[in-house]
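Fill in residues.
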């Protein structure tokens, strides 16, 4: 037996409207931050005014893409390169015109293709291997 929401709503309109009202109002409240954490404690001694602020956290750097370490596993290498290509497109807000454009600005070492093959972009924009 499949649960039919429309049939249930026709039979129990008051219960249905109460459930909808409860769901709508449940997430509407704002929570106020605790008063203690809203303002830092005020110190009156002069040494606290001379203290240096804590150092800023180091800026986030783009993680290096994971490309397969095994050169014989071309499928994993292509998957890793295509993941890196997606990240490149997100950062640059466009598709590269050629594989060489991607490789020149990828910020990591592109693994060598298998003998007699080369990397290129197909019509859909993915990296594939083709014969030289």
């Amino acid at each position: 037996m499949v649960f039919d929401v429309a049939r249930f709503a026709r039979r129990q309109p008051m219960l249905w409207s109460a459930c909808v009202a409860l769901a709508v109002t449940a997430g509407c409240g704002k929570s106020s931050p605790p008063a203690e954490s809203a303002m830092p404690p005020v110190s009156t001694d002069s040494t606290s005014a001379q203290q240096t602020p804590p150092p800023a956290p180091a800026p986030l750097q783009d993680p290096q893409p994971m490309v397969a370490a095994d050169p014989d596993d071309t499928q994993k290498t292509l998957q890793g390169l295509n993941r890196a290509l997606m990240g490149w497109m997100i950062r640059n807000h466009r598709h590269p015109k050629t594989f060489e454009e991607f490789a020149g600005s990828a910020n990591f070492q592109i693994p060598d293709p298998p003998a007699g093959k080369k990397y290129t972009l197909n019509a859909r924009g993915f990296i594939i291997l083709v014969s030289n």
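The mean pLDDT is 76.
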